[in-house]
Amino acid sequence: MKFQDLSAVIDVLDAAYDEGIHTFMCTTHDRVGEIVDYMRTKPERYAEQIFYPGMPYAHKYANAMTEDGMVGAIKRFLPDGGLLDAAFKGGMSVAKKDIEGITTLLIDAEMKMFQGLPTPVIFLQNVVVDLLLGLGFKDAFRIFADHVRKKYNAEPGFITMNLPSLLEVLKEVGVENPVVCSNINKVGFRMSGGGVAAYEKALNEYEFQAIAMSVFASGAIPPREAIEWVCKLPNLKSIVFGASSRANIHSTKILVDEYWVD
């Protein structure tokens, strides 16, 4: 309820920004569109703000598919540039079951709200990554990586609950040095694919840019203990954490500054 009001969201983002945290990892929910529109109106205040979009926002597509069917859903999210071309491409892709065409079209649609803003990393959400991983549809990862690198000059990012398996597949399909975000915590909370030992092995053996999330294991680990442990891991590039107050952001930032070694 607290974040129904956009100003409450902005207050938290301002607190993070003022602490020197200028990267906002977000979904493509419609509320995020309101946030980026607000920040566009204050370019001096948010001069160093960057975004890490994560897509797709699954509920949005599920609702559209239910209401309009596959073609109707694609048309609903058409990019602004070349409306007729996009409509034609989308229709032909569906007709031909051209997965690459559909995928790149939907990425472009999701990126509409970030037009003109810095998005150096674009993530594929774990709801899709882990589904594709389970289905063995490996080429989809390459399609995503190639498109975001070529069209957006961005690094491809993948969120997963199974880091070891995903890294093996990304290497197999030729996605080099990817950004991969996964649960990493000392109790193995939601770390599929072998637990803590397997993740430490992956961090040591694969060339990738690791981002740790759920480092507190949903509150199971005291903050200081969690941050101290995760900061000692090899090859960790970043930590992503959620916060709802200025005090929470400040205390976490202090711990990371204390234990993080460049």
Structural class, please?
Answer: alpha/beta
State the helix count: 11
Strand order of the largest sheet: 1-2-3-4-5-6-7
| Residue windows where pLDDT falls under 50 for at least 5 positions | none
Look at the structure and give the mean pLDDT: 88
Bulk shape: globular
What is the ordering of alpha helices and beta strands?
HEHEHHHEHHEHEHEHEH
Question: In percent terms, what proportion of residues is strand?
Answer: 5-15%
Task: Explain this structure.
The structure is a single chain. This protein has 262 residues and is an alpha/beta fold. It contains 11 helices and 7 strands. It has helices at 6-18, 30-40, 58-76, 83-95, 99-110, 126-135, 139-152, 163-172, 195-205, 223-231, 246-259; strands spanning 23-26, 50-55, 121-124, 155-160, 179-183, 209-213, 236-239. The chain has a 7-stranded parallel sheet. Helix 8 (163-172) links the parallel strand 4 and strand 5 (179-183). The radius of gyration is 19 Å and the shape is globular.
Question: What's the short story on this structure?
Answer:
Helix 3 packs across helix 4 (83-95), helix 4 runs antiparallel to helix 5 and helix 10 (223-231) packs across helix 11 (246-259).
Key attributes of the depicted protein:
alpha/beta, single chain, 11 helices, globular, 52% helix, seven-stranded parallel β-sheet, 7 strands, 262 residues
